[in-house]
Amino acid sequence: MTKLCLYIPCRNGSATLPEVFAAVSRQTRAPDLLLLVNDQSTDDTPSLAHSAGWSVVHTSSERNGLSAARNVAVTVAAAAGCDVLAGLDADAVPAVNYVETLTAFYTDHPGVSGTCGRMIERFASSPSDLWRAVFMRQHWGDQSLDNPPILFGSSAAHRIEVLQRIGGFNETLRTNFEDTELTQRLLRSGYRLAYVPEAMSEHLKRDTPDSVLKMFWNWYRPGAEMAGHFNGVDSWLRLRHPWIWHDYNGRSAAGVAITGLTAITEALPWTQIIRDLQFLGRQSGSMADLWPVVKIATELHTTHGYVDAFVEWLRCRLENVVREGNGGETLHPQIQAAIRESADRMLPRRRFWDALDDSMGCLATDRR
Prior knowledge:
- By secondary structure, the protein is α/β, with parallel strands linked by helices.
- The chain is globular.
- The model has no long low-confidence stretch (mean pLDDT 95).
- The protein folds into 2 domains: 4-203, Spore Coat Polysaccharide Biosynthesis Protein SpsA, Chain A, CATH 3.90.550; 209-364, no CATH class.
- The chain has helices at 17-25, 45-51, 66-79, 98-108, 127-135, 160-166, 178-188, 209-226, 233-255, 262-284, 291-303, 308-322, 333-346, 353-364, and strands at 4-10, 33-38, 55-58, 84-87, 92-94, 112-121, 145-146, 156-159, 192-203.
- α8 (209-226) crosses α10, α9 (233-255) packs antiparallel against α10 and α9 runs parallel beside α13.
């Protein structure tokens, strides 16, 4: 019989943990070990976990972050004699048969080393939450899948001996992308993985336009950094900047028929560019003045015929991001020229207006 540890790596999860704990307490098959890894929380996460009957361990001031917390769970679960380590996010509510489904799957499929389940969004009525549900989904649909390209960390489970053999999670990845990087290593090493849609959970996250755009950048920046896109301005212009517009083009085409998505998608390349340039500036120790990017964005959307309400909304979004980190160095003319040229070529014109008007109407009713 498979012995399973269910664990939550968590920093400040008190807002959603009570509902998650309650759902775990109702499981049709109890986990063999309940483990919360407290990653430097400043709220009452540890006491909530203790009260709910979970074992609590802690990361250290010298070794913390999401990957470090996951590796702490590997060590503790292995010492407890568990075979499978199943992760759950602090805002993911598992279905009543979640643990039973995973335990049965690993018992019946001894050749599978890692899995992820299907996490769906509870909230998807506002434009921001719908955008996340469509473009940042953490599942692969209704059907089972062999060797998916990502085992989403929100519902990923692995055989502990395999995690130990492959070196665990990459602790340089402190907030995200650790699930993608581990999945890629497992696939390259020839391990068999599986998507198990029957292992269902429900995501409690709520977003605003600003927060979902920031989360998107946080999701994809580490992979780009590991691929060398941030090795300098030349690498950024050659690799990352074209990717931003290519990605935007695909999402704008995919989302044009879904009311509510258009405005946030139109802001996507601009927020990515500004955050990228802030990141490059922090790396080099020389922060550029990024207000010219806001000016380019507003000018081009105006000349392309976008309505004044959207241009003003976009300007506010971009100003919020610039204020998070701006400097006095003049933004290199080559960067400004590349941004202007790409945007002028890629931004849609009249065919987008109706969808944009609908999207702005949705945003006007979203008070968060």
